[in-house]
Task: structure prediction
Amino acid sequence: MSYKVAVVGATGNVGREMLNILHERQFPVSEVVPLASRRSIGQEVTFGDTTIKTKCLDDYDFSDTDIALMSAGGSVSKAFGEKIGQQGCVVIDNSSHFRMDPDVPLVVPEVNADAIAGYTKKNIIANPNCSTAQLMVALKPLHDRAKIKRVVVSTYQSVSGSGKAAMDELWSQTRAIFVNDPIEPEVYPKQIAFNVIPHIDVFMDNGDTKEEWKMVVETMKILDPDIKLTATCVRVPVFLGHSESVNIEFENPLSADEAREILRTAPGLMVVDKREDGGYITPIEAAGEFATYVSRIREDETQPNTLNLWCVADNLLKGAALNAVQIAESLCNNYLKKA
Ligand code: 2RA
Result:
């Protein structure tokens, strides 16, 4: 049994990782088709030890394609997602466009894989925002044991979350500083090198950013609609890997030791938690890894039934490409059985 898989946005950070992970996890592909916009046609991408030229999305016929992994931005998902689904190809979309659509399941396989069953309404499954995905993997096992009431999370998000240009910007600003070149404000409105920026995506009427709003509403859709979550999302001068400082209030008592043991055996998680120098995970160590890591698990002594923890994951992998491929794996194993 094998599947024809298209990767839409194949030349972007996440699209390239999708191709890498399809190969690394030996996803049963009969054919991989990298698709991109007209300006990227012919650009070569790698799939294992082969290189493939990208084809044009605009005129591609999806009728004989089984799955389309999409990571080309919300406007492309809006323009093509439903049309692709209507051709019988199942879309797994990494953009935010379909996440809150009631007819589209929003899935983190370790948390709510059963929700994939709802894909048939539009032939679309949505991938959550990167900062949400890793948090759900960490919260789910604790929620099952002690029922989460409220979460306060601060994120420390790497620049790769906003694309290759942002990574180039961090690199060139850092280099400029080392060679004493001025960083011109008209070139870089906000310096990210040796700085942190408490602003990701656009501001909303209540003062939250849309990135913070995504964590709130996606947690409610994926994990539990009764969970109260508040977030502050911050961009930091890190190339790869999102980190999160998380304060979790439970309905029921749960000690740090109990939480640590639960997390040690939970799917998709690695616990690195020793109260000593280096006894915790950092983004540099999480980069390139499939796992979501948890460290610094401890009781919040200011209020009962409350824990603090530190959560880190590669935002291009579990935060995007890996989660999408895991959804595809579950979809094929449980729903898209081919003769
Ligand atoms: C970011 N979560 O980190 C957003 C989109 N990937 O920029």
Notes: The longest helix spans residues 317-334.
